[in-house]
Design a protein that fits this description.
The complex is a heterotrimer of chains A (326), B (397) and C (327).
Chain A (H helix, E strand, L loop, with lengths): L35 H13 L3 E6 L2 H4 L13 E4 L4 H17 L9 E7 H5 L3 H10 L4 E6 L40 H8 L5 E6 L3 H13 L4 E6 L3 H4 L6 H11 L5 E4 L2 E4 L9 H5 L10 H14 L19
Parallel strand pairs in A: 1-2, 1-3, 3-4, 4-6, 5-6
Antiparallel strand pairs in A: 5-7, 7-8
Chain B lengths: L2 E5 L1 H11 L4 E4 L6 H12 L6 E4 L3 H14 L3 E5 L1 H6 L4 H6 L5 E5 L14 H4 L7 E5 L2 H16 L7 E5 L9 E5 L2 H7 L16 E2 L5 H33 L7 E4 L6 E5 L4 H13 L4 E6 L7 H9 L3 E6 L13 H9 L7 E6 L9 H17 L6 E3 L7
Parallel strand pairs in B: 2-3, 2-4, 4-5, 5-7, 6-7, 11-12, 11-13, 13-14, 14-15
Antiparallel strand pairs in B: 1-8, 10-12
Helix pairs in contact in B: 1-2, 1-7, 7-9, 8-9, 10-13, 11-12
Chain C lengths: L3 H4 L1 E8 L4 H14 L3 E9 L7 E10 L15 E4 L19 E5 L17 E5 L1 H8 L3 H12 L5 H13 L3 H16 L2 E3 L28 E2 L17 E5 L9 H5 L5 E5 L8 E6 L9 H5 L5 E5 L4 H5 L10
Parallel strand pairs in C: 1-4, 4-5, 5-6
Antiparallel strand pairs in C: 1-3, 2-3, 6-7, 9-12, 10-11
Classes of the chains: A alpha/beta (326), B alpha/beta (397), C alpha/beta (327).
Chain lengths: 326, 397, 327
Amino acid sequence: MAVAIKTQNLAPVKLIRNVPKEEYYVPGHRTCAGCGPALQYKLVAKAAGPNTIFLGPTGCMYVANASYLCTPYTVPWMHTQITNGGAVASGIEAAYKVLLRKGKREGEFPNIIVMAGDGGSVDIGLQAMSAMMYRGHDALFICYDNEAYTNTGIQTSPTTPYGSNTTFTPPGPAIPEGKTTFPKDPPQLVIGGHPAVKYVATASVAYPVDLINKVRKALNVVGPTFLHIHSPCPKGWKFDASKTIEVARLAIETGMWNMYEWESGEYRYQFRPKKYKPVREYLKLQGRFTHLSDAHIAKLQAFVDAKVKGPGIPVQAPVPTPPAVH
Amino acid sequence: MPKEMMLSGCAASAQAAKMAQVEVICSYPIRPYTAIMMELAKMVANGELDAEFVHGEGEHAQLSVVLGAAAAGARALTGSSGVGVTYAFETYSPIAGGRIPLQMMIADRALDPPGDFGSEHTDAMSCRDQGWLMGWAENPQEAFDNCLINYRVGEDHRVLLPQFVCQDGYFVSHMPGKVVLPEQSQVDEFLPPYNLPHPLDPKRPVSHGPQIRPDQGTIMDLQRAQAMLDAPAVIREVIDDYNRIFGRNYSPFVEEYMTDDAEMAFFIMGAHTMTARHAVRHLRSQGVKIGLVKLRFVRPWPTQDVAEALSKFKAVGVVETSTSYGGAARGGNLLHEVRSSLYELPQRPLTTSFMAGLGGEMVPLKDFYYMADILSKAIKAGKTNKTVYWVGFEAED
Amino acid sequence: MSLPNGNRFGIRFESIGGLGAHAAGQVLASAAVLKMGLNGAHFSSYGSEKKGSLVRSYVRLLPAEQPIRTSAPVETPDAIVVFHAALLKNPATFAGLPRDGTFIYNAPPRSIPEELAALPGTARIIRVDALGIAVKEKSRPNAVLLGTLCGAFPFLDAEKVLEALSEGFAGKRPEAVASNESAFRRGAAEFEILKGVGRAEGDLPAARAEPAWGYETQPIGGIVPNAGNTVWNDVSAARTGSLPVFNRQNCIHCALCDLVCPDLCLVWEDGEKGGRFERELTGVDYRYCKGCMRCVETCPASAMTKKAETPGLAERLRVPLFPDLVE
C-alpha cells in the first residue's frame, strides 16, 4: 500500500554553491524587466524541485508567465481563479491522498504550492486561503507580495502601504496622501487563528538563500504552511528595474518589511537591524511615495515603529488625515 | 442480487456515488441537497466508501476543490441547491472549458429573494449555457441511475464535460420511492475507472489554462461546442448499455407516454411528471386525446428527438418550473427551445407555456386538467390566446 | 483642412508597452477631432498592461461630415510608425503598407536594417533617432515621433498636435511640457528620408492573424502539453537601449547574478576538473535578457557592466542557453 503522506526531506542550503542547479521555471516568459515576483518564482521552483505541482491564481504570475498558450513551468501547473487558489490546491491534495492510498499513483507525495499575489491571498482569495489552512491540507500557500493589483494596471490591495499612489488611490487635494488605510498583515492573519498550521515565515528576494531555505522548510512540514514573500515591482512602485534588490533590502532595514519565522508558537528573526533606518530612506527611492508630506511620513513612521516591536502585538493604526476643507 | 429499497432522491444519489466509487467529495450545507452529503459522510466514516471528504468553506470553494481533485486524476463529486448553485457560478465555465468531467448533484431550490426552501428549476437552468451536461430525474430511481449515466458520458474521451445531475428539491430529494440497487459488479462493468487524458502529475508535466490570445479563444469555444454536438451519440450508446446491464428501459432523450393518436401533449421534466401522468390517464379515460412527452436531458438539447416527438400533436403545453424574466417566452425557459426545435417543421403544433410549481408549490391534478382545457380550446380556435399562463393566477379564460 | 488619399487617413503605431504609443495615438486623435475639425477615432490593441508586450495603436481620420463606420484595426495604413527597431524583425510590422505609404522608424543614424528591403520601393521611408533625441531632451520617444509624423504630413497641424500633447501634461507634470515641446520640434526637423532602401513592388498585403493551431489540432481545454515551451519566445524586444556585457576575466563565479536574474539568461558550465570552481559562468543568452541590469548592480567583481545596445551587439556576444533546442 503506497504511503499517502509526505516523507521527503529537502535539505537546507548553507552556501550559494549548494543552491540547486536545476531550474523548473524557464525563461521566455513575458514579465517586465526586473520583475520581483518572477525572481521569487524562479527561486521557489528551484527550492521545490521536480516533484511539485504549482497553482497559479489569476495575477501577474499567471498572465505574464503563461501568455498565449505558452508555459514556463517544467512541472505541472494549473490556472485557478483569483478567488480560489487555496480551494483548488486542497482538492489536488485530497486527490493525491486517495490516489496514493489506493495505489493508482506511485511515488512520493508531491509538493503542492499555491503561488498567489496579495489580492489572491488576503483579499478576494482570503476565504479559500484560510480554509486551506484550517482544514490542515499538506500544501504550501505562498503570498508573493508586490503590494498592489499590478496586472490590471496597479490598483490598491489590502497589503498596499499607507500613502501609496495607485490608480484607485491617486493623491489629490481632497485626499492628499493617496491611500488612507494601513495594510493587513498576512502572516499574522494565518498565525492568529489556524490551529493546524505549524510553520509561517516571511522572506524577501533580497536574501535568496534564506528564501530557498524557508521554502524547503515549509515543504518538509506535513500540513499547511504559509510564506509571505516580498517581491518589489519596478513598474508598480515606480523605480528603476536594476534597483529591485536595493529596494527590498531597504524595506528590511527600515522595518517596512520584517523577516521572521514562526514555528509552533516560537518566533525566530532574521536580518533584524540593530538600529532601524528611517522609513524616508525607503520611500524616496519609489515614485509611488513622492507626493507624501512630512506629516504623512511621520504617520507611516509611527506605524512602523509600533510594528517592529515584535509580531504578535496588535498595532493600532494612526487616524488617517481628515479630508481637505474646501 | 439487486436489492430493492425505499429511498429518497438524496439517499439514492448517495448510494449511486458510493457505487461509482467517487474519490473526492466536497461538502457545504444548504437545504435540501445537504442530505446527500450527510449520507456520504456516514459512508466515509464507517469505511464503506474510501474517499476524501473535504468540508468546503462555501459553494464556490466546493466547485474549486473538486476541480483540483478531478484535474489531479480523481473522480470527484459535489452538489448544492438554490443560491449555492449561483454562488459558484464563476467556476462553471473554467471547469467545462477546461474539460474536467466532475459531477455536481443539484437538488433544486428556488432562488432568493427571499429564502424559500421550495423547489424551482431556475437554480440549475440559469447555468445551462456554460457547457455542462444537464438533466432532471423524475423519481429517486432516476436520481440513482442518472448519476452513473452522467459519469460515464461525461468521462468519455469524446465528450469530457462536467455534469449537473438535477432533481426537484423535496418532491424527489426527500420523498421516498422504490429504488433497485444493482450489484457492484454491474456498476463496475458499466463505469470504467476515471481516466483524464492530461492529469496534474509530476511525472508528466503539463500546464492547464495558460493565458491566450483572442484567436486562440475562438478555437476553445468551438471545441466545447463540438463536444456538445458529439455528446448525443455517446448518450445513445451509454443508455443502450445501461438498459442492457441494469434491465432498465430508458429512451435516451425523450420519453413518450400515451401519445398514440394524441392531439395534444404536456411537455414536462422533473418531479411533476408523475402527477402529469396521472392526469393524462384520467383525461384519457374521459376520452380526451392527450399524451405526455418527458424530457431527460436539457443539455445537450435533443432538437431532433423533440421535433419528432412533438410534431404529431396539434397543441403542446410546455410545463415550466423555472423563470426567465423579460425573455420572449414572457417568463418561461423551456418554451424557447421547444419552439426552436419545431421551427423547421412544415407543420408546427401550437405551443404555449404553463408556469406551474413555482416557489415549490405542488402541482395538483386540477391544474393539469386546466392546462388540458386551454390546449383543447386552442386547437378549436386554431391559435393560442397567450404565450404563457401562470397557472392558478389567470382570470377565467 | 483636407486629407490626402481619397479623403481618409489611417496610421498604425507599432510598439511595445512602456514607450507611449497608446498615449501618442490619443493625443493625435484628440488634436484632429477637437482642434483640426476632422472626424477621428483611436484605439489600441494590447494584452495585459505591462512593459514589453506588443502594442498596436491605430488612428483613423476622416472629414468632419463622414461618420466612422468601423472600429477594426487599420489594415492598410497610410503611415506606419515603428517605436522600437527590434520590431522590424517581425514581418507583421510592415503588413498592409501601400506602395505610396510612409514608413517611419526609430533608430540612431546610419542604422538601416536589411529588413527594410521588404518595404515597397516607392514608399517613403523615414528614420529618426527618437530614443536619442528623447534622452537628450528628457522626454519620451512618442513626443519625437509625433513631431516627425507632423513633419512628414503637412496636413497635420503641428502646432495643434503640440497643444494636445502639452495639455495632457500641463496638470500632472508641468516641467515635462517644455521637454516634450523640444523633443517634438526636433522630431519634426531632424528626420532623414532614405532612398533606395525598399525593394518590393506594389502594395504590401495586409496581415491576418493565422493561429498555428486549428480547432482540430489545438489541445482541448486550454491544456499545453509541452512544459516549458516559453524557451522558444524571444523577449529581447523588452530591452530599452542597454544590455549587460560579461567580462569573464573579472568573474569570480559567485553566482550572485544568477540569484537575482528573474529571466534565467545566464549560462553556466562545469568548471575544469580539479580547478577552483565547480561551475563557471560563460555568458549571457540575450534572447531572454530584458535589460533590468540587476546582474550589473549585484556583481561584486565588475564582471557585468552596462553598455548601450548597438545593432548586432547582442547577436555577437550571445551564448545560447539551449544550443540543442533553440537556435
